[in-house]
Amino acid sequence: MLQVLLGRLLSPRVVRLIVYWTSTRFTAGSLVVWVVDNRVLLVRNGYGERAWGFPGGVMNRSEDPVDCAVRELREETGIDVAAEELTLLGTHTQRAARHIDHVYRLDRIADDGPDAVATGRFEIAEIQWWPLDALPVLRREADDVVDRYLFPTA
To answer: Rounded to two decimals, what is the model's pTM?
Structure first.
């Protein structure tokens, strides 16, 4: 919550530096990659770095990574999923941010077509489906996840 407040008052770079220098360990979180009909669901935060990324966030103390993914997807998009619908693709380490993300794939066809996604969430400015061949400017971790899991090199 403090990071959200700081993100509204300070530049993203200053917030990252404050978090980095005041942290003594890594944080962990989860994010969800959902691809339907060659389009991927992305969110854009209303604070901090305003580039696009995958729904996700930091795990609560003693929270299981898959439960974090389910919670964050619901909080950021309004989409309810069961843990069984998520498949762990792997982990992604953001060394500079001292953060590890558990990357999950959602195995579900969009309920009412790929355009039916809730908007107006507290921390999310926009939710949108993007064609895989025309992605917007992505946050660094999202860009790394796209390279690693959506377009892996042989």
So the answer is: 0.76
